[in-house]
Amino acid sequence: MHRREFFKISFAASSALIANLQAAQTTTQPRDNQKISPVLFPEKTKMIVHSDRPPLLEAPRSAFTTAITPNEKFFVRWHMPVIPTATNLDTYYIHVHGEVKKRLYITIDMLKNDYESIEVTVAMQCGGNSRSAFHPTTSGIQWGSGAMACATFKGPRLKDVLKSAGLTEDATWVNLNGNDKAVMTKIENFKRELKIDEISDDTIIAYEMNGKELPFLNGYPVRLIIPGFYADSWVKMLSDIYVTKEYKKHFFMDVAYRIPDNDCECEEPNGLAKKTKPLETMNVKSFIGYPSNGAKVKQKAPLRIKGIAFDAGSGIKTVEISLDGGKTWESATLDKELSAYAFRFFTYNVKPMHKGVMTIMARATNNKGEQQPFAKDIKWNHGGYKYNGIDSVSVRVV
Ligand SMILES: Nc1nc2c(c(=O)[nH]1)N[C@H]1C(S)=C(S)[C@@H](COP(=O)(O)O)O[C@H]1N2
Ligand SMILES: [Mo]
Predict the structure, then answer these.
(1) 237 Cβ below 6 A of ligand 1
(2) Counting Cβ atoms within 10 Å, is residue 355 exposed (0-12), middle (13-18) or buried (19+)?
(3) Region for residue 325 given its phi and psi (left: phi exceeds 0; alpha: psi -120 to 50; beta: otherwise)
(4) Cα–chain-centroid distance for residue 133?
(5) By C-alpha distance, which of 119, 76, 94 is closest to 221?
């Protein structure tokens, strides 16, 4: 065949394929990104690098073999191409203003000394985690499943900080802004807005993560922690708390980070939902940390499967493992619960008897009875948010 003809044919074939994919919206297992970059980012171990400007770092599967994620394996997500590269604690403060009786400039020392600090152990996840599972491809980072983590955070309650400024009668919304700035006037800062009477008692301004200062890339010196919510609202390098009466429009609240406002939270690629709502609480999810896809395991030797499960704070009731493609399920052993919001570590012991491919699936159910669906049963949405399909790993028994 002539080269040119070949191109013609393959082009026709691939455009037919694309047309097909576009017609059929499907969800598959997310990509299992295993390409660890040799490039080291400050305070981070080797990670999967989606971009270095801004830094977008994903944790590999093997990071999910403990309930607490070490700080150096915590994923990183920034929106603005330029983020601060240094922070001077002597001059850093959080400005609290707007509908308050007393404008405050809170330094990190004041934050640590003038308020009661509490500790919360919470799972944290980008709303677009596992986005690569959605077809047709949705816009945003094509994360595998490593845009999640779990840590113990320490800091004062956002409520107490607001109280110390004295809210006026009109105070209804709080706008939160970090120290990273949009470089072009057309692009807005990464701002989030919360309704004051919906702020929970365990929403904190954290200055500590797993007993240490926050890593710079995870929001040093302070970030917001909202247990149960997707991390998209957890503003990093928090520097501005602006209290208002009216809701302010912000790009990252009103355009990005929204899901269809209907029962299935789903829509068709060529018929997007007219009504949308902000992305808020997380659904139930589990993930296998060990073994990895493609790993070789020994026949008739004990294999200990490990992973984590979490939801938005009802807590994990069961994690089950299937070795027959989801026909039958058996309970994994759950480790102790660090908090209802935290990763719950699980293990399952098996002795593979037959050589060849063995597929391991994990399925979590929370205390509300909500259960992870099969990957193929997840419904599409334009932002590729909230994927929580049953995880599946295939190993080779040799
Ligand atoms: N200031 C600031 N805070 C931010 C963001 C940002 O771009 N700027 N991104 C948000 C998003 S979408 C996510 S998923 C988390 C990521 O937090 P991490 O980098 O600590 O993993 O931070 C949130 N807070
Ligand atoms: Mo995110």
Answers:
(1) yes
(2) exposed
(3) left
(4) 15
(5) 94
pLDDT at 46 over 70: yes
User: 211 CA distance to ligand 1 centroid (A)?
Assistant: 20
The reply to whether ligand 1 has any atom less than 6 angstroms from the CB of 61 is: no
Which sign does the torsion angle of CA 47, 51, 52, 57 carry?
negative
Helices (H) and strands (E) in the chain, counts: 4, 27
CA-closest residue to ligand 1 atom 5:
78
**Atom 19 of ligand 1, residue of closest alpha carbon:** 76
Task: Supply the residue whose CA is at minimum distance from atom 21 of ligand 1.
Answer: 76
- Quickly list DSSP for 176-187: EEES---SSTTS
- pLDDT digit string, tens, across residues 60-107: 999 999 999 999 999 999 998 888 889 999 999 999 999 999 999 999
Nearest CA owner, ligand 1 atom 6: 78
Does ligand 1 have an atom closer than 6 angstroms to the CB of 190? yes
285-397 CATH choice from 2.60.40.650, 3.40.470.10, 1.10.132.60, 3.40.50.261: 2.60.40.650
Residues linked to residue 268 through DSSP beta bridges, in sequence order: 271
**Residue 76 CB–ligand 1 contact under 6 Å:** yes
Which helix (H) or strand (E) segment is 6 a member of?
helix 3-23
Residue 127's closest CA among 111, 109, 143, 110?
143
Q: Kindly state which CATH superfamily the domain 3-278 is placed in.
A: Oxidoreductase, molybdopterin-binding domain (3.90.420.10)
pTM assigned to the model? 0.92
Q: d(Cα 263, Cα 260) in Å, to the nearest integer?
A: 9
As beta bridge partners, residue 360 has: 393
pLDDT tens for each residue of 159-211 = 999 999 999 999 999 999 998 887 766 677 888 899 999 999 999 999 999 99
With a cut of 90, say whether residue 283 has pLDDT above it: yes
Domain edges within the chain: 3-278, 285-397
CA-257 nearest atom, ligand 1: 12
- Ligand closest to CA 192: 1
Residue 299 and residue 288 in contact, taking contact as beta carbons nearer than 8 Å: no
Here the tokens at position 296 are: 């070789």
Q: Is 113 helix (H, G, I), strand (E, B) or coil?
A: helix
